[in-house]
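discrete fold record:
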Amino acid sequence: MTIRRVGIVAKHNLVAASEHVSRLGAWLEERGLTVVYERETLALTRSAGARSRTASRDELPGEVDLIVLLGGDGTLLAVAAAIAKACRDIPILGVNFGSLGFLTEIRIDELTASLESVLEGTATFDARAMLAADVSRKDARVDSQVVLNDVVFTKGALSRMIELSVSVSGGFVTCVKADGLIVASATGSTAYNLAAGGPIVHPMVDALVLTPIAPHTLTNRPVVIPGQAEVEVRPGGAADEVFVTYDGQTGYTLHEGDVVRVRKSDLMLRLVKAPTRSYFEVLREKLKWGER
């Protein structure tokens, strides 16, 4: 993999990253690389000139060979969606400026060493499976999304409970009566799924997770299913009070009769691995395992 153009993205209005963005841009240019700033990110640095190359977040994946991201997991999810939309296979080097950061696992003091390993071709990458979601209405596809973490069905503000008919690979599973339902990838198992009581699934495991949110029936538990399965969700009852959201970034109200089908996408997302920590070390650090 040859890196000639590097995109820089920071969380919007992340003033704490300003100095690091400036240093990063200068460091890359000193090595003869073309730097492309996300437009909002450019405002964080004073060292970049007026002629600095910029692109919108959606345009950036089509302009670069690598994206360096300074922020939290939410910023990474937005960039991952842009990469999937552009159908590009470019890695993300995520530097954690968030409060948790399962995806942006590289610390700021590891940035230079991590970048050098990528440029030298010695870096290790995690290939993360993504989810593809298609929404059909009256037998016509009305929307398609590719996400990294999860597709979530939740209730409206005035709804006490929703009903969802769930099938897996054509076979009926159950009618979920709950506050909602999470369909998560293995990577997404440490996101909303974890907060809702779902299992942690190692990101290299080929699996999907179905986790009900506050189910009415206490025996309705999370289920891990094969990664090649297709999940079909149909709203029941007050369908106009069921919302679907994608990675917590976008969403909308489902209509009566809508069908949402979720499967593993053909696209993968590559993340630069932290140079000194394994996945389980990251879990121990983020979840404070073993601390009193």
Summary: The chain has a mean pLDDT of 92.
